[in-house]
Write a structure and sequence with these properties.
Blueprint lengths: L4 H7 L24 H8 L15 H14 L3 E5 L2 H12 L5 E5 L4 H8 L8 E5 L4 H7 L4 E7 L11 H10 L4 E4 L16 E5 L13 E5 L1 H8 L5 H5 L5 H11 L2 H21 L3 E3 L9 H7 L9 E5 L3 H13 L4 E2 L9 E3 L11 H6 L6 E5 L6 H14 L11
Parallel strand pairs: 2-3, 2-4, 4-5, 5-6, 10-11
Antiparallel strand pairs: 1-7, 6-7, 8-9, 9-12, 11-12
This protein binds pyridoxal-5'-phosphate (PLP).
């Protein structure tokens, strides 16, 4: 039978220490052993089910990891203290000094800065390419390439990666394909399309309440155990461990992920369609006009839609700032970075989440300074939101009432 992430999640069943319907929260940094020999074996990585020290693993983190593995259809998953904690651990686990990465050029600004600036310390080379053009990816691969990296739907331009095609290329060159699926949990299942490692910033849709930062690495048992290795594991040694209390709260929030993603997608589709009719420059993977629409249709899990992210280009940074301030004043959402909240969040990526990317490179990749990134919220009455947003656009003269289609 076909893999269905929400069924896998639904079928998970946990029992707390006293039969509670939620697993008990592990409230310890260290664990006792009845024999010194078992402690030694655990250090050697030979005793399954024994806990050593919570930076290595904790029951609460393992429960959340189990749910994330079910979500992505991977053998297992490790949780981390942030999305960046997951990304940096994966890179440093796969690459040695002198190695090379082929990465999409449109990725989250923090990941871009890590790769472009910070990895210089380790003499790890990066080629940033347009990963929607397979020939560019193929040409950038060298014998030193240790990973191909992309986001399934990219931040902030919403480019859609053709994961099946990239995976074929990666396999041909014996290089792992690493996909950050933060923008499209449930909508896209990268591992099922051939990705070797799937990364998440849990901070966003998966947690959904904008109250913590967290991340995850989903992959094979071998790779994820390697990350925890006490001698060589980047997860264990760099120490980006998630706190157990947070792991348990994220696990509880994950139970409504399927409902939330459907609503985020439905609302984003409604606004995107209507703003496009109004003649605005809107980018949304669900629109036929989107460059990656056909690729998305070939690889998405239809019932979860095209995701909750949309961009609108309002021509200039002044327009973008004025619109965002006005929308916030009218309680339509928050002028804030991040995504996946119940309320709409908007920011101008050029001056915020992608500001690490130099201006000339931003322009080259199509990141104009009038671009606003919207993470569309769970509004119950989206037509009302649309009318109110259009009112803001009219008030600022960005569109005029007679230009609008509805
Ligand atoms: N990946 C993507 C696509 C992101 O948008 C972000 C943050 O915005 C990250 C990774 C980093 O995640 P975190 O802030 O949880 O470290």
């Amino acid at each position: 039978m076909d893999f269905k992430a929400s069924d896998e999640l639904q079928d998970l069943q946990y029992f707390g220490e006293y039969g509670g319907v939620n697993p008990s929260i592990s409230d310890s940094s260290t664990y006792t052993f009845l024999s010194a020999k078992t402690m030694f074996d655990t250090f050697e990585g030979n005793t399954e089910g024994c806990y050593l020290y919570s930076r290595h693993s904790s029951p609460s983190n393992l429960y959340l990891g189990e749910a994330l593995a079910a979500l992505e259809g991977t053998e297992t998953a490790n949780v981390t203290a942030s999305g960046m904690g997951a990304i940096s651990a994966v890179i440093l686990q796969l690459c040695n000094a002198g190695d090379h990465i082929v990465s999409s050029r449109t990725i989250y600004g923090g990941t871009y800065a890590l790769m472009k600036n910070f990895l210089k310390k380790f003499n790890i080379g990066i080629s940033f390419v347009d990963t929607t053009k397979l020939d560019q990816v193929a040409m950038a691969i060298t014998p030193k390439t240790k990973m191909i990296y992309c986001e399934s739907v990219s931040n902030p331009l919403l480019e859609v990666a053709d994961i099946r095609a990239l995976s074929k290329l990666a396999t041909k060159h014996n290089t792992p394909l690493v996909v950050d699926n933060t923008f499209s949990p449930l909508s896209i299942s990268p591992a099922k399309l051939g990705a070797d490692i799937v990364i998440h910033s849990l901070t966003k849709f998966i947690n959904g309440t904008s109250d913590c930062v967290a991340g995850a690495v989903c992959g094979t048992k071998d790779f994820c155990l390697g990350l925890k290795d006490v001698n060589n594991g980047a997860g264990m040694l760099l120490g980006s461990t998630l706190d157990s209390l947070r792991a348990s709260s994220i696990l509880k929030n994950m139970r409504t992920l399927h409902i939330r993603i459907k609503k985020h997608s439905e609302n984003a589709m409604y606004l995107a369609k209507n703003f496009e009719k109004d003649g605005l420059r809107v980018v949304y993977p669900g629109l036929k006009s989107h460059m990656g629409h056909e690729v998305m249709k070939k690889q998405y899990n239809m019932e979860y839609g095209f995701g909750g992210l949309m961009t609108l280009d309002v021509g200039s940074l002044e327009n973008a700032n004025a619109l965002m301030e006005l929308m916030q004043k009218k309680h339509l959402g928050y002028l804030a970075v991040s995504l996946g909240f119940y309320k709409t969040l908007f920011s101008a990526p050029g001056t915020s989440t992608s500001s690490e990317i130099p201006m000339e490179e931003q322009l080259e990749m199509g990141l104009s300074n009038g671009l606003i990134r919207f993470s569309i919220g769970l509004d119950d009455h989206i037509h009302r939101t649309y009318i109110a947003m259009k009112g803001c656009l009219n008030e600022l003269g960005i569109i005029y009432p007679q230009e609008s289609g509805t």
